[in-house]
Amino acid sequence: MPISMPMATLSDATPAVAVQGLNHWYGRGATRRQVLQAVDLRIQPGEVVLLTGPSGCGKTTLLTLVGALRQVMEGSVRVLDQELLGSGRGDRQRIRRQIGMIFQGHNLLRCLTAEQNVQMGSDLLPGLSYRARRDLAREWLRAVGLEDHMGKLPHDLSGGQKQRVAIARALAAEPRLLLADEPTAALDRRTGRDVVLLLQSLAREQGCAVLMVTHDPRILDVADRLVQMEDGRLWSAEPALVG
Length: 243
Description:
Blueprint (H helix, E strand, L loop, with lengths): L16 E10 L6 E11 L4 E5 L6 H8 L7 E6 L2 E2 L5 H8 L2 E4 L11 H9 L7 H14 L15 H14 L4 E5 L7 H18 L2 E5 L11 E6 L2 E7 L4
């Protein structure tokens, strides 16, 4: 595990994520469709929350709203103590610098090696020399089991390896909030388990809140809490069953 860097954290009393009365629509006029309905959700620093539910129920939309990738239409979305409702583009860019995002489409830059892609994450950390940022990128690649693939371009990597590079890139930025959409979908059982335990360790050691969308029943016991969504509503939020 890479050495943790000093970082600002929220107090235990301040949620990393506080969503209240969130509604969201797609389309206009006759094609307008509500995809989120009166969503309330709170996640504390250091907490790992898994979001489950059928495809198309609004999980990814919620993730992108919390990640400041979409503009909030109605309701309060407070992330790292910053309100996103009514926020400007500059405000959303600043908050995104504190959020790690892992999506199914790994979004690696094809012209950069695995190491260079991951260093894009560590480049967000202030006060580090180039060598320190490079070494941090290498440490995270080792942590996800890619120590022998650092110099490879994305087209020379398998789908699972690309996903692990994307995970390492998100972690290299040492985020205060980590959002992950099906991070284990392209991974085999052992690798998927190792990656999720790595995310859990990040939450525990650095006080990073984790919200993860998943259909993978093999990792449910890693969560502090399971939240279920159906038809745009969060209808259950139960403690995770461990063991």
